[in-house]
Amino acid sequence: MPGVLVIEDDDRIRLSLVLALEDEGYAVRGAASAEEGLVAQREEPADTVLVDLMLPGADGFECIRQLRREDDVPIVVVSARDDTHDIVAALEAGADDYLVKPVAVKELSARLRALRRRGRTLLAPVSTMAFGDLEILPEAGEVRLRGEPVALTRTEFRLLCELAEHPGLVLSRQQLLQRVWEYEIGDERLVDVHVGRLRQKIEDDSRAPRYLVTVRGMGYKLQK
Amino acid sequence: MPGVLVIEDDDRIRLSLVLALEDEGYAVRGAASAEEGLVAQREEPADTVLVDLMLPGADGFECIRQLRREDDVPIVVVSARDDTHDIVAALEAGADDYLVKPVAVKELSARLRALRRRGRTLLAPVSTMAFGDLEILPEAGEVRLRGEPVALTRTEFRLLCELAEHPGLVLSRQQLLQRVWEYEIGDERLVDVHVGRLRQKIEDDSRAPRYLVTVRGMGYKLQK
DNA sequence: CAGAAGTATGACGGTTTCATGACAAGAGTT
DNA sequence: AACTCTTGTCATGAAACCGTCATACTTCTG
């Protein structure tokens, strides 16, 4: 879950930011001062930091520089001052974005997403889905069992991905035929055969499947 | 020199933006429409693009989406409308920042620098890419295997770079044809042939490739 | 408990997908 | 102009894969 740290001294504003961002699905922590914020970030790094510019003690600029020195985390400034001079100074200090209060939560959230996206496209090229000891890397066309690569055929791979995209959900043979084979109609036994082959490769004991489970009369599902 | 592309239909505004940014030390080109901008970016990619939202013909959002589809270049929107709804829509479409006209040139410049910096810190290790004993130096146009230079043809080199830019990711023959050959359509076997030739040069045993791996039914990938 | 329905699995032939060597056309050099 | 290097096309053979079927096994139902 995306983690955000909010550094803001005004209790009311901080609380409202925290609540609003939680509503948007972020895991949020708050800090009431620059020092507190820096410590929090050191101990449990958030992947985005929101900073107010006017903080008691060490001012916001110093806080940004310090964060930047320790970490490469994206920093968004939220400030009441909408003065070009401040904006430039904050960005030069290392901030990635600057918003003027009052901020629209929707905009803030969209800007956080934009920042996160930019980071991700360059940083994390491969997404992973994990089911216990079973890892699935869709873009890499790779599957690993206890870290060891497993050689799957195209159909097996697609079947596994389809199931993995709906963890714990039962998919009927019909659904699988349509999504994996793009058949409108077809022999449902075909699915059985491929499930069987897949089990030989990813299950220790294909008689007692741990991941790829049969739900009699309904279909198959993939579980953790 | 950092290159910026300004897509803006109003001649006066475009010109003033171009001049102002040139003053700040950027190499700037202008485009008066979305279409012109897309073509310009295709032919000679700038490393940041500025887009006006209100363009004649294809609107700005569509332009952003198209840019994003073709390229990973940072996009900054400059618009007269300061409406949360527009801002969110632009960011969702793929923009990285959004500024409301009239823009302070100093702020614009600072934001461009911030964006560029974020790009670079994450993109930096591109200058030399390593896959085990295989080193790729894109700028130098050089490839080394265990320190020894390997002579590659232009096509082989481009193919290798394209794969190397997405380490571990499977690229389909279609994708490779488009990116390396700039063919929209073409015989996919062509890719096989060049992969084969590349393997002869960079693999010890081209029958059991260590780096340039075939993912049957999907494409090829380069792995560590 | 017997039959039915549903599921697992091994075997086999046809098809698809790949790797590779041969070759001719084009580009660039000497 | 002869030469070399590169590139795209084609043909061939080998390997991998897929779908079908028959059979065996399990679970449910009356």
UniProtKB/TrEMBL annotation, chains A, B:
- Domain annotation OmpR/PhoB-type: ranges: 126-224
User: One Pfam family this chain carries?
Assistant: Trans_reg_C
Q: What is this protein called?
A: DNA-binding response regulator
Which GO molecular function, any one, fits this protein according to its record?
phosphorelay response regulator activity
**Alphabetic keyword roster:** DNA-binding, Phosphoprotein, Transcription, Transcription regulation, Two-component regulatory system
Q: Which residues carry this modification: 4-aspartylphosphate?
A: D52
Q: Which domain of life does the UniProt lineage start with?
A: Bacteria
Q: Which InterPro entries match?
A: CheY-like_superfamily, OmpR/PhoB-type_DNA-bd, Sig_transdc_resp-reg_C-effctor, Sig_transdc_resp-reg_receiver, WalR-like, WH-like_DNA-bd_sf
The entry's cellular-component GO terms read: cytosol; protein-DNA complex
Naturally occurring in which organism (per UniProt): Dactylosporangium sucinum
| Any one GO BP annotation for this protein | regulation of DNA-templated transcription
Q: Which residues bind DNA?
A: 126-224
Q: Ranges for the Response regulatory domain?
A: 3-116
